[in-house]
Amino acid sequence: MKEDKQLKPVPGYENYFVDVEKGVLYSNRRGTLKLLKSSYSEQSGYYMNTLYDADGEPSSFTIHSIVMAAKQQIPINSWKILGLTVHHRNSIREDNYGDNLELCSRTAQFTEELKKRLSEEKTGRSRNKVSRDDVLDILIGFSEFDGKITRYAQEIADRYDITRINAYNILTRKTWKDVEFDKIS
Nearest-5° angle of CA 18, CA 149, CA 124? Predict the structure, then answer.
């Protein structure tokens, strides 16, 4: 397998690798590196993957647990014995980017969620919402930006207190398609 600095091995599963930055899983079980799709579990409400160990025994895990294990280079779910859980910082279960995941106690996780909800009630604005005028300003700024879209998405996420994915979706016009915008020449 070609060595790729972005891919980290999944501890205990020698044929699996994670692009921690993007939060995606790859398999090398058949000798060729292949991106694996996660399947949604109605039961857990999370995306799951089945991994096969060296003996060919299958085990199913949430993708965020797999990403965290690769990120920290520790066995999957080993944090549970310490009373920790994987927390999505932006509360979006589908956002499994490595920098969106952290280990914390269940108490800390729910305290953070409560703070977000109270903040939303106080300000009247959800963390994941921007106004039509905000979107127009974002698009105008992007038309003048000379750099990578991911860097600008992070700047926008920080400036407007939204997720990087939401910022990226605005910039790629996957959301807010109805906002009329003509590029500045």
Answer: 95
182: exposed, middle or buried (Cβ count in 10 Å: 0-12, 13-18, 19+): exposed
- The fold of the 7-117 domain, in CATH, is Homing Intron 3 (I-Ppo) Encoded Endonuclease; Chain A (3.90.75)
Residue pLDDT tens, the chain, 185 long: 444 458 999 999 999 999 999 999 999 988 899 999 999 888 888 899 999 999 999 999 999 999 999 999 999 999 999 989 999 888 888 889 999 999 988 887 777 666 666 666 555 555 457 888 889 999 998 988 888 888 898 888 888 888 888 888 899 988 888 888 776 54
Q: For the chain, give every domain's residue range.
A: 7-117, 132-171
